[in-house]
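USER:
I would value a second opinion on how I read folds in token form. Give me a protein, with the fold worked out from its sequence. Write it directly below this note and I will take it from there.

ASSISTANT:
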Amino acid sequence: APGEAIAAPSGAFERDPQESSTTDEELGRAGSRGGTTPDYGEQRLPQALIIGVKKGGTRALLEAIRAHPDVRAVGTEPHFFDRNYEKGLEWYRNVMPKTLEGQITMEKTPSYFVTNEAPRRIHSMAKDTKLIVVVRNPVTRAISDYTQTLSKKPEIPTFEVLAFKNRTLGLIDASWSAIRIGIYALHLENWLQYFPLSQILFVSGERLITDPAGEMAKVQDFLGLRRMVTEKHFYFNKTKGFPCLKKPEDSSAPRCLGKSKGRTHPKIDPDVIHRLRKFYKPFNVMFYQMTGQDFQWEQEESDK
């Protein structure tokens, strides 16, 4: 289908309905409700977008940045630049929350990063749009992606079966979306034809867990915001294994992401993990060179 950069084999990888398939009605409500801000201001097209990646930590990032008083964001994923583009910019604007002068409008749809047409379409909306990509070790990202699908379709083949074209020869099936999404260098090339690197911020999904305040400081600087989301906003939840958000002035319990986040991953054959690491390594190195950032995914592996 147009706007779908990745062919998923045998229907194994449809997008997570809970995370993405949002009805027009829900979007309408999301836009008009506009969170806690009173119903005034106006609906504007977003100046910043979280464009990827699926299972990287985009929901956590969105929830954290929404704690900033100068940010208004759509809670649901509009999928405008991949699935709803023909509905036009006016439809898109109507999905947005109302903002006051000086506030930033944002949305997140992680599938944009792997959609061929998205960079051109976003560029034609506004060439100065700021883009945020949350990236995570592609091996753990692929397993997380598979785990999400497995929770909805317990009958799908094992990760090992889907990951290989030929297990004996160790040929990885790069057409499987769970693997293909993690070839970040490949997708980034497409974006760099339309946007300078200075307009793209790469957030580490790992550091969003280990040092959420540090990553959020970079995000706020990038968006030109005062640093108001700080360590006071985060509380580490030992059961979940990642930080939860709290409002510093509010003594109520911290808000954690739903039960669909932090699922236990199935046990994957160590040989398969080893082969996947080898497969991704050259692409990771290329990605580090393109972005000028070393995400240390290789180091992380050798520590284990």
In short: The CA atoms of residues 216 and 229 lie 7 Å apart.
